[in-house]
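Weekly sync notes, structure subgroup
Attendees: PM, AL, DS (notes)

Item 1: joint prediction request from the bench team. They want all two components modeled as one assembly rather than separately. Inputs as received:
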Amino acid sequence: MNALDPILVVDDDDVDVMTVQMALDELSVTNPLARAADGEEALGYLRNSESTPPGLILIDLNMPRMNGIELLGIIKADEVFKRIPAVVLTTSSADRDVKRSFELGAAGYMLKPVGYEQFLDIMRTLHVYWIYSEAP
Amino acid sequence: MTVILLTSGAVLLLTGVVYFAYEFLTFRQTTVRQLSTLGEIISANSTAALAFYDQADANEILSALQAERHFVAAGLYDLEGNLFSSYPPDLPPAAFPAAPEADGYRFGDSHLVGFQPVVQGNKRLGTLFLKADMEAMYARFRLYGGMAILLIGFSFVVAYLLSNRLQQQISKPILALAETAKAVSDHRDYSVRATKLGEDELGLLTDAFNQMLMQIQEQNQALRDSAGRLRAVLNSSLTAVVVIDADGRISDWNARAEKMFGWSHTEARGQLLGEIMIPARYRDAHQQGIKRFLATGEGPILNRQLEMTALRRDGSEFPVELSVSLVKTDEQVTFCGFVTDITERKRADESLKQQAAVLENMTEGVNVADPDGTIFFTNPAFDRIFGYERGELLGQKISVLNSLSPEENTLQISTIMEALKAEGIWRGDLRNRKKDGTCFYTSASICAQEIGGKLCWISVQEDITKRKQAESELKRFADELQASNQDLERFAYVASHDLKTPLRGISSLAHWLRAGYSSKLDERGIELLNLMTKRIFRLNDLIEGILHYSRVSREVASLVEIDLNEVVASAVDLISPPAHITITVPKPLPILRGNLTRLTQIFQNLLSNSVKFVDKPVGQISVSCEAQDDKWLFCLSDNGPGIDKKYFDKIFEIFQTLHPRDVVEGTGVGLTLVKKIVEISGGKIWVESRVGEGTEFYFTLPQNEGYR
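Output from the run, pasted for the record:
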């Protein structure tokens, strides 16, 4: 991932998005953050020719209108979008969700911890991993 | 020949004697008559000489006698009895009787003597004495005897010659015949032939005799052939043939009987049938039967097929079918028994009976149909299932049984045919029609089987209407349950997400408040923020607890071999109890089949529970297990504070804790979770405790079955 590629956060909860933003700021991540409140919005962003294609997509599962699993299915079926690494960042620890996500081609599955410190750890790990990973 | 000679000799002798006696008598009479005639003549001639005493004349008359040389003496006596004249003249007077004797002629010793009165008119003058020798008669007899001897001799010779000749002609062939007959009867050799010696009647007889022998020989040969064929037939017969006489003794016995009963023909002959072939308990009846038949002529067992038990030489018994026929020749009574070993048939009958009983009594219906689908067999269950009277379906087409549309029927038939081709059997459910038109379901298997050269359809069907109903009911319950489970799952899922998201938001906000606004908050404010954060975490744990709990029954477990020693060790490792608490496992724990996650949850929760509450300077926790009947009994004991008996039930209720949450962190889910796991695994859990001393948690798990 290029340091200037945006990170697309698909989450309906503002505080969660804020937490991601705060964590990225605290970790001095330069990548800009793009936000979509649900799956449909995310698709809208991705299909908009004016938006910069993201280097990483963080997807919450439980969202109104179009949930994360549905979104993942659509992205991974798309010839272009499927190359973008999509990591599930969710509260659900249900086996079914984990299995389904990986079946659809998720690049990772992270549980949102309740404490901010642990959240920070997760964001750091994610960023470090993808900043060192080559982009397609 | 001797006989012939003797016979002819005797006949000749007898004839000779009779003839001789006759001659003797007639000759004597003739002699007496001749003498008396002569005497009368002489006496008549002598009257004058006597009357006149003329001796010369008298001598002359007497001398006339010399012509007859048989006269040895003659004399004339006068009335006084004095010899007056004598002949021959030179014979002394002493040779004459002194005086004449009584008149008449008589035979004296070897002479014939006669006294003839000499009479003139009425006047007796004297007596004439005559004496003749018997020489004539003797001569005659000699002649006769010689003739007789000659005749007999001649007869003998002739007889001998004749008999010799006859013997050549008659006796020899007859003797030869007799000898041949003797040889035939002695050696029973009918191949011998008598030699023919002539063309006469005897030759014809010999021919006839030989002809007869030839016929007897042919008949014998035919009889022997026939008997041989009969024996060969008997011996090759699969039926044992036993012939007995009126006493019950075996007189004949074929090869099959030898094999069947174990006695050879020679061994069996003469034995009592009752003793070697009939088990002891039936022997009396057998004897009685023969006796009754001989007495009354009634034989109820004759000429009938009977089943009975027979005895082998080795003492074993076996079932036979027997028919007895009576063979009566002249005065002799013979019974002929035909015995078939029916062990196999009995066994087959028995197994057929059993099979029939199975068919009769099984709850599944069975029908068998022709290649063209005509039913020719149904068992009672089949009729019952389809609502028909017993046997009512026979002759009907199998198509009356199903309630499919023609299209469905065609499809089903082709499906069944394909299955039959591929696997030889079709199994599945059929939609059928009862006699009253009711539609119902059966679980069926159909196969094709050759019966009596025809490929028949056999179907076995079980009424599954009730099962279908039960199944649909069950399915409905399952659906409902699944729906409610899905609701619950949905609920738990949403709860986890929707409850946790704001919680995390609060947590983040509190963090930022503390981080960004610490200069504006006093100590009290910071403390309040900390308290808030603690409760955030507690609420998070509660939510997690609910999720765990709701997940226990939903997860489909895979059963694996689990070493509980490892489970406990890893739980201890995870809990990492403080140094003053020791967890011991005195005896090795068993290895069992189960769900690793759940077993781990049990031990982890119970152990952490104990660890959490230990209040002694040295905490001691031990885990043990023992086999009890068909289950494992686990015990987890500690020397903690103990639990008041009144809380024994409460501690297993969800969200119930016995301590203020701020003193001991606890969600009140752990023991509830353990209880649920133990119970859905088929076990029980309970607690024993003394306040201040310690607590024992007991739980059981089934030994044999793995649990989910």
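Discussion: The longest helix of chain B spans residues 135-187.
Action: AL to compare against the crosslinking data before next sync.
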